Amino acid sequence: MTNDIIILPLVVHLFFSILLMFFWNKVNFQKVVSIVGNAVAMVVAIWAFIFVYNNGTHIVESGNWSAPFGIVFVGDMLAVTLVLLTAIAGFAVSVFSTISVIKARLRFGYFSVFHFLLLGLNGAFLTGDIFNLYVWFEIIIISSFVLISIGGEKNQLEGAVKYFALNFFASMIFLTALGVLYGLVGTLNMADISLKIAEVENTTLVEISAVLFLVGFGIKSAIFPLYFWLPASYHTPPSAVSAIFAGLLTKVGVYALIRVFTLIYGGDSFLTILLLTLAIMTIFSGGIGAIIQNNIKKVFMYFIICHIGFMIGGLALFTEVAMAGVIFYLIHDIIIKTNLFLISGLIYRIKTTTNMKKLGGLYANYPKLSLLIAIPLFSLVGIPPLSGYWPKISLILASFNAQQYWFFGALIFGSLITLIVIAKLWAEVFWKDQPKLKFPEKFIYFDQLRIGQKFTFIFPVAFLTFVTLYIGFGAEHIQQLSQRIASELMNNELYINAVLKR
Amino acid sequence: MEIILAIITGVLYASGIYMIMRRSMVKLILGIILLGNGVNLLIFLLGRITKGEPPIIDSAEKVLEGVYADPIPQALILTAIVISFGLQAFAIILVKRTYKVLKTDDLDQLNTTDEDS
Lengths: 502, 117
Description:
The structure holds 2 protein chains of 2 kinds.
Chain A: H1 8-21, H2 27-55, E1 58-61, E2 72-75, H3 77-100, H4 103-106, H5 110-126, H6 130-149, H7 154-185, H8 190-196, H9 203-221, H10 229-233, H11 239-263, H12 269-292, H13 296-317, H14 320-351, H15 362-365, H16 367-381, H17 389-401, H18 405-431, H19 451-473, H20 475-490, H21 493-500
Antiparallel strand pairs in A: 1-2
Helix pairs in contact in A: 1-2, 1-5, 2-3, 3-5, 3-11, 3-14, 3-19, 5-6, 6-7, 6-11, 7-9, 8-21, 9-11, 11-13, 11-14, 12-13, 12-18, 13-14, 13-18, 14-16, 14-17, 14-19, 14-20, 16-18, 16-19, 17-18, 19-20
Chain B: H1 2-21, H2 25-46, H3 72-102
């Protein structure tokens, strides 16, 4: 059983997504099955995490084909940590979906597709084969296309067309890069590629494939000149869907960048300059985008872009300290961004709008709830004991040591602009008096819900806030974990030896 | 043979990207299809083209010897074709549905997502 432990998260999600299809019209039963499924997935993910934490990198060879020939699943610390975070975010979002997404949407296989999305995410984190990574990416995007267009409202369809066109284009560029890389090295196993790419004489072609990978993953992770699909589409689906997209879909792009640029193209000076420039521009454009928006969902979307820049910049610095900061930030970011979109869904349910100009008085009406929401907002800014603060120490330290003062400045700027925007948001949404709201009929208000339903609404937010608090106050554990992952990433012989059994 | 395939690949990429950048949604789908085929041809081309040497091990031997055609690019292309076929089917339905709701085929008209609401 423990031999195949790291592919169990995949099996669990596959099983539950197929199971859910048998109960197509029984929406209430589907809700229960989905929550149970995600709880099981979380238990399995914790189990896999503890197993890999104690025993080191674990690999599973599909069909017993030994490493460079068959597809391998590699459970190193980075992969299992991300699988665990996926399980946490997936559990929270599935609980939130049961109450916030209307029945008309749930009836078209919402939960089944949701489990397929999580399956794709787990697969992408665990696979050790680059073509297999492409296949998992396709599973992710086709599930996300269904989730973004389910319901078929006008702006949803518009968002879906834009999201579809650019993500499909990104996949094609990824596939092109893969073709070029296969032509150069003749293997698809990432560990094997890492060994063979050093022997390739034509470095221009290697760099071309690296840039193609950067563009392909860059579109998916929304870095500077390639992010325009994100503000046009992420706010259109229901908040639960936006939450899982914001928390995990852009981060899977960042994960792929980290994996490819540490394992295959480690420490290339041309790429360092390129990545740093893109990171600085991403932070600036995301931050400035956030400050002019009035819709809180759009503000949060620009924060996604802004904070992607932190991670890309840390990856570009390519030192162990910077990498530890990147991993810590990734851990913090997945939880916090999921939570922010759940919060925007909660605010929408209370006030029927997410426009800051029409909102107000939340603190007067719901003081306890506002204090709960304050914790993730402060963590996002990085108020000292909370989770956003710790990774920034590593990142700032690393950028100072590497004498990259532009990135140093961009980090400070990004943090400052986050603070300004969150202060503005707090003043507008929580402290300002409530302007007159037009109350549409046929809208289920938060106050009209039963106590159990209210609990289901608030529980996921509270759960993720608790995880954020743990990341903040238990920062020592997370920092140790990040440093361990960073040293594994920087010394990629460990990964290669584990995969190729040398 | 390689020259012809290389030129065809280039033409498919160029025309695919050109079609994607047009304003009509139907042309977007055509562009996606052309680009997908271009990528498949590129993988086929970069896997080295070997004529008439199937990778079949002779019954007398244990390993393959000499020049043989690499079977992996073909497996990759097959997977990529199936995936892009599924995505194209989805895209056609999505565009049809969008056309019904919005009554327009012009991508420039899709701007309600940018409104301040």
